[in-house]
Design brief:
Blueprint: H1 2-13, E1 17-23, E2 30-34, E3 43-48, E4 51-59, H2 63-68, E5 80-89, E6 96-100, E7 109-114, E8 118-125, E9 130-138, H3 142-145, E10 156-159, E11 165-170, E12 174-179, H4 185-188, H5 201-207, E13 214-217, H6 218-221, E14 228-233, E15 241-246, E16 263-269, E17 279-286, E18 290-295, E19 303-307, E20 310-315, E21 318-324, E22 338-339, E23 351-354, E24 359-363, E25 368-376, E26 382-392, E27 398-402, E28 406-410, E29 416-432, H7 436-445, E30 452-453, E31 484-499, E32 505-512, E33 515-516, E34 522-523, E35 535-541, E36 548-552, E37 555-556, E38 559-565, E39 571-575, E40 591-595, E41 600-605, E42 609-611, E43 623-629, E44 634-639, E45 642-647, E46 650-656, E47 663-669, E48 672-677, E49 682-690, E50 693-698, E51 709-717, H8 759-764, H9 774-787, H10 789-795, E52 801-808, E53 813-817, E54 822-827, E55 836-837, H11 852-862, E56 874-880, E57 886-892, E58 896-904, E59 912-921, H12 937-942, E60 954-960, E61 963-968, E62 974-978, E63 984-989, E64 995-1001, E65 1009-1014, E66 1018-1023, E67 1036-1040, E68 1044-1051, ...
Parallel strand pairs: 1-94, 21-22, 26-30, 37-63
Antiparallel strand pairs: 1-93, 2-3, 3-4, 4-5, 6-7, 7-8, 8-9, 10-11, 11-12, 12-13, 14-15, 15-16, 16-17, 18-19, 19-20, 20-21, 23-24, 24-25, 25-26, 27-28, 28-29, 29-31, 32-35, 33-34, 35-36, 36-67, 38-66, 39-40, 40-41, 41-42, 43-44, 44-45, 45-46, 47-48, 48-49, 49-50, 51-52, 52-53, 53-54, 55-59, ...
Length: 1465
């Protein structure tokens, strides 16, 4: 009994919470180019944190331009863009990424490694468009670890260039070798003909392309191998040959005088069959700062060793050649180096990529791009290096070359860029001669090139003229000395595209959103209560010149231009007048029609909006649909009884529809009009223009009306994916097949007699002919021509085709070709929402149309049907993306909206399949679709009037704010976009709930806007705010600062943001200690020395109305003064009024050098409003200094408690009182090592130590004492702290260096807390990304539909931002919801297949460097896993819900409620 009480007691005191990432990481850490979908198309695969994305480089050509172009005549490729074709979330952070072409495979496989020693081999699955795991390799057993508990080592993967094997370095001590089968016996058998294996399983294993892996211990190869810096495979060896760069005995820059040149390079030949590994080549005494080695392809061979200050070329039988890039190399190594003239750079943090056999691009840590050319003489030895500064760009984390003339710069600190590089025409000729003096002179004569800054996309350099490849002459001079003439080409880089990146989030805060009212004036935010407070999330992101302020919004707040009341209007449409007659702009809407229950309003929209009468439009009946036909020359108006064709306002034709049932739905695919009757019939009409008189003709082909059709969608396909011809899919030339141009990730047969491995032989002939360097230019010319086919193929225009999609009462979805109305595709049970929709008639030939219906009947009776799948109520098939190349199918059921993308599939009748992208929760809707049972007279009459249930909820639009997409009306209204970037974006609309009807509206006064009715009968005419970028996960606005943003706070009283910025410039002076005091001394180290950078800090005010810096209101701090802490503090105000007043408080530290004691300042400022200067409304703020004084140590953290100021000075905590412009000390306490964050609530002070975890202090005002209440006894490197507020329970949320979230609680009555001295760890969770900044938001119910009782009263959720650009929240859960989610989480762990074999539970378990005697507490629900429940098919969801004893609706409404709570920005 006692135990039971104890358990209950414990549960009550626990902090149940859930962590969910709502904005994925945007930083890019790895990029490789591989043939991901098929062997014909090269893709770019990008990884960052736990994301994997696959892009294609596509022409950025609009449909209008595309018709004028003839791809075969184009010499130069058009401007390109990156199009995302697939995105995958992994339960683990990618540590290394490589690709390999396995024997007999249709596409490349990816090798992805994860901490500590896991390797997954993945491949694209063409049947389901998913990523399938080919094999898993796990090396985390204790004996392999060799006693290591820390997670220090990155598992690095490298692949042999001839695809014979791959190696992975684990724990820095061992190599895993993964051999690949190279025999081609698999190629001869078609993969489809392979029969199931009847033999023993061993026979099956022996045929797989990946053979068994094995381990090599490096110490066994050579005692000294330790501290491996880099491993690489060399080119052109008979067996796979691995280079290992290592440092047997370590040194550092402070010990150069004692020990330098410590690195060693060793080459190992891997004999995989015998598993013997002889060392074949060793180079000793390389400079201590080597960090990478790069193999060079044949015909040059060998490798480049990169050090921080030098570049060294090494080859097995050739003397080394090295150059120093600055003067630091001269006195740090005794390796023979030649100074490189005209170059002063450092390769620290640089990235490299080969763009040719002898040229590589170097991206420095400052963002400059250099092209390094290896100058080779006639004996193919490297005789010289040539550096050419080509551009200045983003700070990179990786570089990848695609399609041989595009280069992708991946970045963690700024937007990733795609650049196109071209060679300039005028070449510099230099002679490689024995005589070095001559050569040095020639180097000096060379002119300095222009430097293009490619940071800003607008500054792209002009396209180069068509390239000319000149033969490289080889001349031999008389004097017996070998020499050759080499041409050095300059390169021009221009930006093609950029990927938005908001990493790293250094600091963030919440501020109030500025509203824009009808007349364009900005309204000050005025919130009466917290419910109405509209907040936005502002983050200081980026670094150095990529620094920016990012403003995030996760619900779109449309800018309402005007609104007027229209009683009883149920639906609205906008249409164009005859385009041929219009004089003004063609794309402006001319008429607006509003439908009431049994009548219609017609408005003309020009400069003003007026009602017009006596037109060809019918007004005394309800309108079901209005749209344009015939390239926008005609208008079609459909009522429940008629179809009317108009030109402008003139009626041309009226077609009565009399089939004993009203028209209830219309769908148009110009020139077809499809009507659905209430009784389930479908009628199609087509626009015919014979002898100049346009007519609508009824199609004599019909489709069966039983079972009754419940939804239709007509679709005009421009993507070429919808095709019944198989040659469109398996076409290799791309000449005739229309569909091939945009094959969206299909799979093709490999081209005969050319494999990827033979590419080198193509370029350089056989190894024997490699001496004929003359022919290289000719070969390059041919390969250039061949290489440009890929973009010509993508420019081929597909012929439009017309299709009708219908869903029936039986739950099936069918696709018919128009106009012959042949059934080409049949999906059973579409409302179930399977991940992949495939054709039930895939193996039934559709040649004979007579028995068509009977065949469908047979298939239906054979296929499994789920009993209670929701019925599809509405369909939409729309071509999104650029020029409609990405068809998206939407199916709306009563509970949700299913969104599918179409992908190419080579079997079956219609060569496509559908893959589910997303599923939207529409739970709160009232069951609006009730069949009419009794056929009373009134019912029948009523059914001919307009009714709310006929109003379509899915509204496609072609241009709202420059974007095409679909508006989903209803209770949870949202915009669905899929732009040329290729990623699906869903943005919710903020407002009071329901949107009943929607139409795009483009007008003189409202450019590219839209109209909508919400719950009231007010027609709101609005536009999307133009300053936001909608093509990102959350709409975001990036305000470039061109410097590093640091701390950021929002001053609510004056509604202004205060930001600390940091700029860096080289400095030649520094302070040195001379016994008593410090003195400034200046250094002069010659022109090749790279001086260190000094930081300059500044505080600026930024107004949220314009996002510009307020002029004349900034503070520049002294040189050497670093801002370490910044907060707005409420201090007790001595003066005319009592109470608290807000001040800006800044803590700084003077970073001089290690010999000089650290001291810092406390600055306190007040923002005062003054009369602004005329014409400059921004100048109304000034900063007034209240206090500034030097302290005895660095001011490392700041907060306030009960009107007093709290500061951390290193390890001391002081409490001050502000009186008469001076700070008077009140109390102090000594803590652990270095306090870097303080937050307070009431009289409790919560502090974070950089090494010794967290402590809780208490300040008693009446006794003026500061005492330690409780602390965590275990060491922990704390990064961020925040309170978790769950009603009356207070938890302490901590983020640490190991990327964990931990929740502590103060429970003095618990036994393990030692009477309250120790904080108890209540929950922990591994996030996988570093969190430096968090804030709290109170939970509120928003929107009309509220669940009772509200379970989240007085709970706060914590919003966090990560260094990888992710955002998420941690939310305390009610116990009932927590228990339900916990059971759901446990079922889902075993229910879903794990991508890459990664287990979510293992990933979310607390990770730590040292083994601690603590069990993981868990107790935090993995929100990402719970949310994956939504994407399960309906039958699976019901099964899972049944397992845990609840209903699907319960779980979905819990999820919806949490989504509503967190959608406050």
């Amino acid at each position: 009994m006692f135990n039971l009480l104890l358990c209950r007691r414990r549960n009550r005191d626990s902090m149940f919470s859930m962590c969910k990432q709502t904005h994925p990481a945007t930083s890019v850490e790895f990029a490789i180019s591989c043939r991901f979908f098929n062997n014909l198309e090269e893709n770019l695969v990008v990884a960052g944190a736990n994301m994997l994305k696959v892009y294609r480089i596509s022409p950025n050509v609009e449909a209008g331009q595309r018709q004028k172009l003839n791809p075969n005549e184009m010499r130069i490729a058009p401007k390109m863009r990156l199009e995302c074709l697939a995105t995958y979330f992994l339960y683990g952070n990618v540590m290394s990424l490589q690709c390999v072409s396995l024997a007999g495979a249709m596409q490349d496989a990816l090798l992805v490694s994860f901490k500590d020693a896991k390797l997954s081999v993945l491949q694209h699955d063409p049947d389901t468009y998913a990523l399938k795991t080919l094999s898993l390799h796990y090396f985390e057993e204790e004996d392999i670890r060799g006693g290591w508990t820390g997670r220090y080592f990155v598992p690095v993967v490298r692949v042999d260039p001839d695809a014979r094997c791959a190696v992975m370095l684990v724990y820095g001590k061992r190599l895993v070798v993964l051999p690949f089968r190279k025999d081609n016996s698999l190629d001869e058998i078609e993969l489809t003909d392979v029969k199931p294996f009847k033999k023993a399983p061993t026979a099956m294993v022996s045929r797989t392309p990946i053979m068994a892996s094995y381990l090599i211990t490096l110490k066994e190869l050579d005692e000294k191998i330790d501290n491996v810096l880099d491993i690489q495979f060399l080119h052109g060896y008979y067996e796979p040959t691995l280079l290992i760069l290592y440092e047997p005995v370590r040194t550092c820059s402070g010990r150069i005088k004692v020990r330098s040149d410590t690195c060693v390079l060793v080459a190992i030949s891997l004999n995989i069959q015998q598993r013997v590994h002889p060392i074949i080549w060793t180079v000793n005494s390389l400079p201590f700062d080597c960090f990478q080695v790069y193999p060079i392809q044949k015909p040059i061979g060998g490798c480049l060793v990169m050090t921080v200050n030098a570049v060294i070329y090494l080859n097995q039988s050739v003397p080394p050649y090295g150059v120093s890039l600055n003067s630091s190399a001269d006195n740090s190594t005794s390796f023979p180096l030649k100074p490189q003239d005209g170059v002063r750079i450092s390769l620290d943090c640089a990235n490299f990529a080969f763009i040719d056999v002898d040229k590589l691009v170097i991206s420095l840590r400052t963002g400059e791009l250099y092209v390094l050319t290896l100058c080779v003489d006639s004996m193919r030895t490297v005789r010289n290096f040539h550096f050419h500064k080509a551009a200045a760009s983003v700070l990179t984390s990786c570089i990848c070359v695609c399609h041989s003339e595009y280069i992708f710069l991946g970045s963690r600190l700024g937007n990733s860029l795609l650049l196109h590089f071209t060679e300039e025409d005028q070449s510099t000729v230099i002679t490689l001669d024995v005589d070095a003096e001559q050569q040095a002179e020639q180097q000096e004569d060379q002119d300095i090139e222009e430097v293009y800054d490619v940071d800003q996309i607008e500054l792209a350099a002009p396209q180069a003229k068509s390239r000319r490849i000149e033969d490289e002459e080889l001349e031999v001079y008389g004097s017996g000395a070998k020499a050759s003439v080499l041409q050095l080409r300059k390169f021009i880089f221009e930006v093609c595209d950029s990927l938005i990146n908001v990493a790293p989030i250094n600091y963030m805060c919440a501020g109030e959103r500025v509203e824009f009212e009808e007349d364009g004036t900005t309204l000050r935010p005025h919130a009466e209560n917290l419910h109405d407070l509209k907040i936005e999330l502002v983050a200081a992101t980026g670094h150095s010149k990529n620094g920016a302020l990012s403003v995030f919004v996760n619900c779109i707040n449309p800018q309402i231009i005007t609104s007027f009341e229209l009683d009883g209007c149920l639906d609205v449409w906008t249409v164009f007048d005859d385009a041929t007659k219009k004089t003004s702009r063609h794309d402006q809407h001319d008429f607006m029609l509003l439908s009431q229950r049994n009548s219609t309003l017609v408005l003309q929209t020009g400069q003003e909006i007026n009602e017009i009468e006596n037109t060809g439009f019918t007004v005394n009946q309800a309108t079901i649909f209005v749209g344009n036909l015939g390239q926008q020359r005609f208008i079609v108006q459909v009522t429940t009884r008629h179809v009317r064709l108009l030109q402008g306002t003139r009626l041309i034709q009226n077609v009565p529809i009399d089939v004993g049932s009203p028209v209830v739905q219309v769908s148009i695919a110009d020139p077809y009009v499809c009507l659905r009757m209430l009784n389930g019939q479908v009628i199609t009409l087509a626009l015919r223009e014979t002898r100049g008189s346009p007519r609508l003709a009824i199609n004599k082909h019909t489709i069966t009306s039983s079972p009754a059709v419940v939804a239709i969608a007509a679709y005009k396909d421009l993507s070429g994916l919808f095709t019944v011809k198989s040659d469109d899919v398996l076409n290799l030339t791309g000449g005739s097949g229309s569909g091939f141009g945009h094959s969206f990730g299909g799979y093709m047969k490999a081209e005969p007699n050319m494999k990827v491995e033979d590419e080198e032989d193509l370029l350089y002939g056989d190894a024997g002919n490699a001496f004929k360097i003359n022919s290289m230019a000719v070969l390059a010319q041919q390969s250039k021509q061949k290489n440009s086919d890929w973009w010509r193929r993508l420019l081929v225009q597909a012929k439009p085709s017309y299709w009708l999609v219908v869903s029936r009462k039986s739950g099936t979805l069918e696709i018919y070709s128009m106009p012959d109305m042949k059934l080409v595709y049949h999906i059973n049970d579409v409302g179930n929402g399977a991940m992949v929709l495939s054709d039930a008639l895939e193996f039934v030939s559709l040649s004979s149309s007579t028995q068509e219906n009977s065949k469908v009947g047979i298939v239906q009776s054979c296929m499994p049907q789920h009993a209670n799948s929701p019925l599809p109520l509405e369909l939409s098939l729309v071509g999104l993306g650029l020029n409609g190349e990405r068809p998206v199918l939407m199916v709306r059921t009563r509970v949700e909206l299913l969104i599918y993308q179409v992908f190419r599939y080579p079997k079956g009748n219609l060569k496509i399949r559908f893959r589910k992208l997303e599923q939207l929760n529409l739970l709160d809707q009232q069951p609006s679709h009730i069949e009419l049972e009794e056929n009373d007279e009134e019912e029948e009459l009523e059914s001919y009037n307009m009714q709310p249930k006929y109003v379509q909820k899915l509204r496609p639009f072609s241009n709202v704010g420059g974007l095409a997409g679909i508006m989903v009306c209803g209770v949870n209204p949202c915009f669905v976009f899929l732009t040329a970037r290729g990623e699906l974006r869903i943005h919710r609309l903020q407002g009071n709930g329901d949107v009943r009807s929607f139409a795009a509206f483009n007008n003189v006064n409202i450019p590219n806007g839209f109209l909508y009715f919400d719950t009231t009968f007010e027609l709101k005419i609005s536009v999307l705010p133009s300053y936001l970028s909608y093509d990102s996960v959350w709409p975001v606005r990036k305000v470039p600062l061109r410097c590093t943003p640091r701390q950021l706070v929002y001053h609510r009283e004056n509604r202004v943001y205060c930001l600390i910025t940091q700029t860096e410039e080289p400095m030649t002076k520094y302070y040195r200690f001379n016994g008593e005091d410090k003195e400034l001394s200046e250094e002069s180290r010659g022109e090749r020395f790279i001086y260190p950078n000094g930081s300059q800090f500044e505080m600026v005010l930024i107004s949220p109305e314009t996002w510009e810096i307020v002029p004349d209101a900034s503070i520049r701090f002294e040189p050497w003064e670093h801002v370490t802490a910044f907060k707005i503090v409420k201090l007790s105000y001595e003066g005319t009024r009592s109470g608290l007043k807000e001040y800006l408080c800044i803590g700084t530290n003077f970073n001089y050098s290690e010999d000089i004691t650290s001291r810092g300042n406390i600055h306190i400022y007040d923002i005062i409003e003054v009369v602004p200067e005329p014409g400059k409304p921004m100048t109304k703020f000034k900063l007034k200094e209240v206090f500034k004084k030097e302290q005895k140590g660095p001011v490392s953290a700041i907060s306030d408690v009960l009107g007093f100021l709290v500061t951390g000075l290193g390890q001391k905590i002081y409490i001050w009182q502000l009186r008469d412009g001076d700070l008077i000390g009140v109390a102090f306490i000594d803590t652990n090592i270095y306090v870097h964050q303080i937050i307070t609530v009431k009289s409790l002070i919560f502090i974070a130590d950089v090494y010794k975890s967290i402590s809780l202090l208490r300040f008693q005002e009446e006794h003026r004492t500061l005492s330690l209440a409780s602390r965590d006894f275990n060491p922990l490197e704390v990064y961020g702290i925040e309170f978790m507020v769950d009603n009356s329970n207070l938890g302490f949320l901590v983020t640490d260096a190991e990327r964990n979230l931990i929740v502590y609680m103060y429970q003095p009555e618990a036994r393990e807390s030692l009477g309250g001295q120790k904080l108890i760890r209540k929950a922990d969770y591994h996030l996988g990304q570093v969190v430096n900044t968090m804030f709290r938001v109170q939970c509120h119910q928003r929107g009309v539909h509220q669940r009772q009782p509200f379970l989240y009263e007085n709970k706060h959720f914590v919003v966090y931002g990560t260094l990888d650009g992710g955002l998420g929240y941690c939310l305390p859960l009610p116990e009932k919801v927590y228990r339900r989610f916990l059971m759901l989480q446990n079922v889902l762990l075993s229910y879903q297949d794990h991508l890459c074999g990664l287990n979510p539970k293992e990933f979310r378990t607390l990770k730590s460097f040292k083994k601690q005697g603590l069990n993981p507490s868990r107790c935090i629900i993995d929100g990402d896993l719970i949310w994956s429940y939504r994407l399960l098919p309906n039958s699976d969801r019901n099964e899972v819900a049944k397992k845990i004893g609840t209903r699907t609706e319960e779980i979905l409404s819990d999820l919806l409620e949490i989504e509503r709570l967190s959608g406050v920005f």
